[in-house]
Amino acid sequence: MKRIYLDHSATTPVDKKVLRAMMPYFQDKFGNPSSIHSFGQQASKGVEDARLAASKFLNCAPDEIIFTSGATEANNLAIKGIVGAIKKKNPGKKIRAITSVIEHDSVLEPFSELERSGVEVIHLPVTPGGVIKLEELRKAIDDDTALVSLMYVNSEVGSIQPIREAGKIIHKHNEQRLKKWLSGKPASRGEKPEPVYFHTDATQAVNFLNCDTKHNFLDALSLSAHKIYGPKGVGLLYLKNKTPISAQATGGHHELNRRSGTLNVPGIVGLGAALSQLSAAKVLKNNARISRLRDSFIKKITARIPDAVLNTDLRTAAPGHAHFSFLGVEGESILIALDLEGIAVSTGSACASNRLKASHVLVAMGIPVEIAHNSIRFTLGKYNSEKELSQAVRQLEAAVKKLRKISTEYRSK
Amino acid sequence: MIYSPKVLKHFKNPHNQGVIKNADAIGQEGNPTCGDVMRIYLKVGEKKSGKAKTAKSEPFIKEIKFETLGCAAAIAVSSAMTDLAKGKTFKEAMRLTKDKIVKDLGGLPPVKVHCSMLGLDALHQAIKNYELKKR
Questions:
Q1: pTM exceeding 0.90
Q2: Which domains are delineated in chain A?
Q3: Which of A 295-354 lie inside 8 A of B, CB atoms?
Q4: Which terminus of chain B is more solvent-facing, meaning fewer CB atoms within 10 Å of its CB: N or C?
């Protein structure tokens, strides 16, 4: 059976070119990049080339790149590291941090930890399309605010957040904060105020959107290699110079003391190679192709399957996402039925999560829990073909039909 | 794969799935908000049990059908359970436990055991409903 992979939000296969770039670093160039001898230098060269590639992609300085084990670690480092460093500098000071209700758990959990340590955390709500409202952000930023962290693209429904606009709002607030301080009397105005730092979890955006850190007014950005046709277990945090940070892993002095631990050399080389593939021209071409495939896929589904509700708002979504609810059937049962036919998808249903809770993203978008249970997420990638998608629609139609016949909650009209 | 081959077999081709139009009893458990709803339909017969001389007539499950909104495990449990319950007297059917069904299915992921067993509750509900009606 030829299998069909429609779960690119979960992970992607490693691109052949990426794999080829990585291969020498397992055996021939196996050195520890911290070693001074020629073996170490060889490995270090691989790491530094990847750092250059990443800095080019993000339009930043090479030393603003911190390699990590992935986006989860990068998110933890950014959120706990920035707020932690500010807390240390200003003990007893009231601190506010702002994020949204639709973030990944690797952002929400660190914020919960901060909340337990006394930081005030504001979770911005989203529209029914899954996008934050900039007005809410503007209102939430006050003089105590230290950090804003917003994801670039939501991993479940694919909604794109207005990162550049949010960055502008923060930038403007910082200018005013500084101006206010400058207008005070030098003797009584105290220390220069810390600006609000802006972090984005760009994990799901890198394949598709502009990640220029200057264009987007960013101080920090997380990304992961395995979502962009690179290897698992490696990612990075872009951290603008002079941003306060307290390291989470210490004791090795790697990455300029910001993240200790021997570098994953083949992984980092793979990440660099994966980013090098994402030239602006290639991204544009790929976006056009994937969104064309996705749109025709959605059209076929809505034409052939009654009561299929599209939860992805196509006006504000990344090109690869199509998130549906098939009324009257439980998402996990569709997932398993498709898996038995070799088709890989994902669901926001509680029945597929170990915690037995429906997706917090769908609930935050105002989707009733019983409809969240009916959901299936399709995320397309660069290797998908028209033929595969037609095949998937046929199997999906059969699965939904069969499961609706079994269901207590669906009577065909 | 997280499910046993037997669970998948039942899920692919569920037994006793559907509706009994003139059912003698119906039982239902769960709600769409928690993600699972199970409904059991029964046709009830009478059969003699015990030794010939002292034999008593007892109700038994002549026919059983189910409808399920739920995950693959919930559907497989409904199918396996209706197989086990078919032909059983009420007393025997009330003695059916989740452990027996899980064993019959070659195991279930632990997180799935609780919710998928709503089918058993629905069966017991149907039997109680029948007995209430007869009283």
A1: yes
A2: 16-276 (3.40.640.10), 280-404 (3.90.1150.10)
A3: 328-330, 332-333, 336-337, 339-340, 349-352, 354
A4: C
